[in-house]
């Protein structure tokens, strides 16, 4: 597999792997040199597992190639650039731009939370990246601080790791024994398996902004059951540090995806804050977030009076197919069943979501997210370095 050397390997006769930047369930990321063009690159190597059947190995390979195709079709200054996809010894490698600098997770671990102005800057960049991806029919589905890179010297914000991206027109792959997604940053509608859309990425951005401002996701808990409950039915309490950006944070963390703050309004509000230091009062009339300790009730205002009965929000065109989103009691029941089932299976908090062909939820013994290194490292799109996430 590649040309072996004392301290290096050359794959596909071209890319010299020189230093490992990160490792996780989805692969190993190397700092490498493109010997043909004489430039530094990051190379993501799919791990080889001899225990896999031929069909399972093929699914892993297809998943890697899907990531490459998803990112390669995107062109945006805040999205990682894919240079090449090669195979060596029947194992695929994704070749990406090398970004000098660490992830947002590294920044939070070593320097602490950022201020509101910096969070707004990061949010604007990520909204642009998500907008470009969504316009191309690509859902990221794993937006978190580990997958956001901050380039040294330029402060460029780069969205990386499209390893579990969903591409329009491409069937979802079933990965036996592999988890996809990060519980603390996963939207409730996706966690329940009800639906996945661009709005789910926006929920993740809301959680990420909270983490950037306070150091951790508002849904961080000590157990898997606690995370499930916090995301699906618990009171959503943004950290005090989110105060300057609270209208945007609350709008993005709206449980009903049909009422969630959209990307365009979120970006306009963050830009206004960045330019003036003040957040616009609220989104346009008609938008009424319901996150927080309890939905606000204003009986004196017919426009926002809630009808009697379980539904929390006005039914939309597709509401009948989504009772999970309309009935808090049903949300609580589903959350309780998920917690009970996973607790009975002995699933740890590190392993939550397994993506099936139907987008459902299921347990698995491993996690795709590698641990954040103890010391800063230079990597590219990896969750904890400036290399792409394994």
UniProtKB/TrEMBL annotation:
This enzyme's EC code(s): 2.7.11.1
Binding site for ATP: 44
Start and end residues of each stretch annotated as Disordered: 274-323, 355-390
Keywords for the protein's UniProt record, in alphabetical order: ATP-binding, Kinase, Nucleotide-binding, Serine/threonine-protein kinase, Transferase
Top enzyme category: transferase
Gene3D superfamilies: Phosphorylase Kinase, domain 1, Transferase(Phosphotransferase) domain 1
InterPro entries, per database record: Kinase-like_dom_sf (IPR011009), Prot_kinase_dom (IPR000719), Protein_kinase_ATP_BS (IPR017441), Ser/Thr_kinase_AS (IPR008271)
Domain of life: Bacteria
GO molecular function: protein serine/threonine kinase activity
Bias-annotated ranges (Polar residues): 379-390
Protein name, UniProt field: non-specific serine/threonine protein kinase
